[in-house]
Please model this.
Amino acid sequence: MERAAGLEILREYPAAQLGRAACRCLRELKDEAKKHAASNAASATQADEIARRAAALNEAATSPPTKPDPSDWRSFFGSLLGRDYISARNATIEFAAKHFSLRWLIWLEKRGDRLESTAVSAKLKGRRVNVGIELDDERLADAAAGEKPAVLGKPATEEEPEPKRVLLFAMPVGDEIPVALVVLDKVAEEDKRRAIARFCRSIAPQLEILRLRAEMDRRARLDEVSEKLAEGVRELDTDELWMHLARVSAELLQSERASLMTRAGEGETFCVKGSVGTAFDMRDDPAPGERVARIVFERGKPIVVRDVATTGLPPVGEERKYRSASFLSAPIWLGERQLAVINFTDKVTGMPFDRRDLDLVKAITPQLAAAIDRTQLKEKAGELEQLSVTDPLTGLLNRRYMVQRLSEEVKRSNRHGYPMAFVMLDVDHFKSYNDTFGHPAGDEALKIVASVIRDTLRDADVAVRFGGEEFAILLPQTTDAEAANIADRVRQNVASTEFPHRKVTISVGVAPCSGDVCAEMDIINAADKALYRAKAEGRDRVSIYRGEEEDVPLKG
Model:
């Protein structure tokens, strides 16, 4: 709030006071703005400094050019500091085009060690524009020092006495040139050239103030996003984290839709890990990411498109209901590894995505990469953990998992008095099946038995391969009678299933969780004893454990 209040003070000073004395101050302000993220306390200090220096902007600006109408000039300059930077930039282009009778204008901004095109006049909308100049180019320095533009283009020759040239008008702030205006129109009159140059020099301090304000806001947004990303990594589960990363990134770019996609390996299809705002369920897409994400992933470079119609990409179905023809897609790298592709469409403002949006994505990419890497490691750890407790032949859980889970269920049953039962079952005469038909046939029979068990049980029941031809079933919150019915249903289903070589049956032992047996190994031993009794009584039957001398066989 203090920073905003400080910036508002700038609006109270008329444009005429924002002269060359402001330029030296603004350069220092830019350096201070870069330090904003280091400390919250620095924000208040910076706002105070901006307000103080605003009061120091008391040297009269260079007189405005004579070409525009004075009232229009005053109105334009008076309203400029009430705009945001993008709006002011576009208004400046329109003002110059109207009052200097120009049609073909290109706006350049500092990007690294170059000035590069970021906006154009109405006549150039939709056209591909790629204009730039190195900041250390002597022609640019000459244009900043005087009231003449830099002339860019080929020199005149006998074959081409009037080659195509463009005029570059610098907008210096102190000894820096953050912005320039390129004119493609022919401007032969020296007075007109001088008037445009003076206009650009006069407008530069105001635009730099707005740019600094936008930079401070951008850094504040980045700080907020960084905190949200960090919070998500600490607190959210794996599946939720993918959605969190997509949602926070969309908020930063003011994008209604965003998605995160990964690819397991070379040539494999993409997987949508998290998406927000889309009216189309991306899970219904048989080949997600094939239009754009694959291109970005394989090239390893971002794409910013103002109008998809100019790209030659195949059209998308109407069910996607995109509101805008612009999109941004960028790879996410961690060192030499490309982890994912993030996509954005439909800006809230209705404007196309541009270089500033890409800069924001690049600013948060390190955090996204770290979060995604951690998420993928958690997923791989989960897969490895799943493999460590899964039987590779049948796909059921294994004995290791059952011992751990059984201990938890016994404690829960003892604490809350819930009924529970444990079941052991064994394939009858399995050794002779193996000896007669071979081990591959025996493995296939075990797979079929496992499938029958899985299909018979309820969602809360847990089936495992206990070892060899033995299986076990944990029945949480299940009474003795219910356990007996479930066990006998499994037995009947196995007996009625068609196996490749001969009929297969099972013997089953059930141990309800009673006071004298409801301990981890005791209940396993009790179920095993009931199973032994079922086999001794003739197999293909269920036996309920009732104590050392009271096993109750249920004939099949």
